[in-house]
TrEMBL record:
The lineage of its organism: Eukaryota, Viridiplantae, Streptophyta, Embryophyta, Tracheophyta. This is Disease resistance protein At1g50180. InterPro entries: Apaf_helical, Disease_R_plants, LRR_dom_sf, LRR_R13L4/SHOC2-like, NB-ARC, P-loop_NTPase, RX-like_CC, Rx_N. Keywords: Nucleotide-binding, Plant defense, Repeat. It comes from Prunus avium. It comes from the Eukaryota.
Amino acid sequence: MAEAVVSFVLESVRDFTIQEAKFLSGVSRQVEAAQTELEFMQGFLKDADARQGQDETVRIWVAKIRDTAYDLEDVIQTYGLEVDSKKKKRGLKNVLKRFACVFKEGVDVHRIGAEIENITTKISTLRSSLQSYNIREIRDRDNSGGESFLQLQERLRRSYSHVVERDVVGLESNVEELVMHLLKDENRHQVVSVWGMGGLGKTTLARQLYHHKKVSQHFHSLAWVCVSQRFQVRNVWEGILIKLISATKEQKQEIKDMTDDEIAKKLFLVLQEMRCLVILDDIWRIETWNLLKDAFPNVKTESTLLLTTRNQAVALPPNRNAFLHELQALTEKKSWELFEKIVISGRADIDLGMCTKKRELGTNMLRHCKGLPLAIIVLAGVLARKNTDREWEIVHENVHEYIRKGIGHEEEYEGASWVLALSYDDLPYYLKPCFLYLGHYPEDSEFLVSQLTKLWVAEGLISLRQQRHGSEKTMEDIARDWLSELVERCLVQVGTSGSNGTIKGCRIHDLVRDMCLLKAKEECFLQINYSLPETTSSVAAEASQLGKIRRLAIYVDEKADRLVSSRDETNGLVRSLLFFGQREWMPKSIEGLLSPLKDFKVLRVLKVEGLYQVGVELPSEIGNMVHLRFLSLKDSYIKMFPPSLGNLVCLQTLDFRVLTFDMVIPNVVMKMKQLRHLYLPVLYRANGNLQLSTLGHLQTLYNLSIEYCDLKDVGRLTNLRKLTIRGSSSLQNLEEILKSAGSTLNCIRSLIVFVNYYSNSSEEQAMQIVSSCRGIYKLKLDGPMTELPKELHNYPNLTKLQLCRCDLKEDQMEILEKLPNLTILKLANALEEDTKILVFFSKGGFPSLEYLSFHYLPEITEWSVEEGAMPRLCRLEIEYCLGLTILPDGLRYLTNLRELTIRKMCRELHYRIEEDGEDFYKIQHVPSLVIGEPYEDDYNRGRQLSGYF
């Protein structure tokens, strides 16, 4: 991964020298020379990265290159920031002090210049060493007279059509579905793709289809080819053609004598004229498909291609009628069936049904496999050689290693790890650090996409240069694209999805995480400390043998007496510090709990969330951490907002959504001119107005208080896209202010307005604000409102609307159903109280609505849905609507409804929607029905649920 590090450092130095050139004038020559050396180095690093796993010398070189590149970035940026700070302070000094400052600055220039030259010399020496070592020649050369590493790897991955697995479990439904797609005559697919992570059984499934009786009878001819990483296009075409025509010796010679164009044309005609099935197993890259595709017809034909791949981009090739089949992990039942089948195969001395101890151990060990057939097969293969309970216990004690390495517990190729690592090895250099970054997160945890993308940007994994290449896309947009690519490559799993299908949360499979941590350790990318106080130094010493620790993830548990050690000499090198698991943690003392953070001089990322202990103090020295790009103290009881935070001029994300009420925010945010995302507390005060007009890069502004912030400043935030605003009881000339900010407000895409419960004018303010933001895609209104803006239907982009704790009159539904582009509507405690409301959805109403949610609407006693209303509705959720006893008959007309969730409704309604109930016919057509428990409490106690919002 040195290639990625050097590339990112090079981009970072370029960006910094462009933005802060005036502060580097004294060392510009040295910086330029260092950049040149890094550029020369890039040419050798791809081969060095690939080789370091098999050559200790190369591994040491790569580690040194990585650390030297980081050192260069630290020196240049630290110097630039120091000069900037001194120039700002110098304006306040008298003439004598100014001369002293100039003299000192000259000394610093000499020292920094020499330091940069020293690092440049190191880079040059390392490059010369790599050049003389001839990495490329070693990489391709036979290893000890035998196969090279790549040749061995390729041979181990090769699949053959004649091999039929004996132990196949859990693929029956997959085979049945895919056979149907392969055999159908109407609307047939040119391409059928099996997509999934490594080890799920894609090749096994393809073999089941290849040898299926119905498939072999349906197709005139079949061909199987495993597409290796170093495939030759001609060889692939030749192999397929020879198999499809069952070539004689003479025909094989004719094919050998053909040109590439002639072979492609011949294969094209055979596939067009005959009914053939061609299986291309293990295609990794879309570039591979692009090289092969010209020999496969893209016109109507009876032939079919079946692809197996880990890459969704390959599974859905452009300009082809393709069907995507995503292979899933095995259920617990099927996992045990496969496990048992292998363990007892051919052995009469083991019966897991009778051996209580072995069954208990086996069940526990299977949980680590998480339904991955490859891992189950490896584990079962190990245990099939073990006879006694004690031998099984030994495997159980170190089950991860046995799954990872296999039978011998030492040979990588016998286990699951190397198969999964192939996906990592195939990543482009820029995605490797993004993937390794996921190792920060604890096992089985789901991480928020919105925060992860900000962390990647703060770490410099996405550069300004890439943003320019992405046209109007922000760096956060590019980060989301890269995360999607990791999902498409089956290294990341989608967790929580938004109501509009966007990815909100992700996770990684436990075995993929193990592989991720293994790679992160090899690359010295990340260190995880599981408890404090004593482990930090020893773990750091071990990890630093081949590199300096740059990122720390600390998992705080009940054993810890503090968050981080102040005695660790490696603290001054750490760039990223993320804490996890501290919510239930109670330290002996909170005094000075965060003080050791001042030792982290070059820290870029600091995440300390969920500190529930009241009165934790953020040290004023945090203002010295001038490299910080990301700071999150979300959901923590922080005592105060230190004014020194204004020194953090590089800060991009500040999440200060602390749990402390009535906090005073000093007017220093305006100094953080690089801020892209600002999250203020829910309730805060300020001495005068918080000035925000200098934050020209700001995209997200959360909890803007009209009372303590000048709305005129918002008009100057031309990059603002997400705004959360809280109403006030005393604001004059709002209409005039909003008019002056019109062009900026029209660019806002997401708007959340909290209406003040204690102000009669707050509803009018909210209406004026909404009326000024006509470009919004997403709108949430929270608080007492009786009417919606009448011109809402003229908002061309409005697709998502959420109304919470409102007092809307019953006629407001007529406004809502006329919104032409509304796809998502959430109503939560949004209607007038003490009114029996008939909710009426008329014919033609909500023409684009795809998702509808009713949550705690006790006023609804009847709900009418006419035929023709909500024609595109796919998801419907109804919860805590305790007055509703009957579902509308019109639900049966919603033919596109795919998912219906009903929870905590009155018992009478639950009786009616049971399979033998009176209303079941209205919803029986819905494929996914989620019916939860009825609400057991009385109606009035249900009112307490309003606090949920």
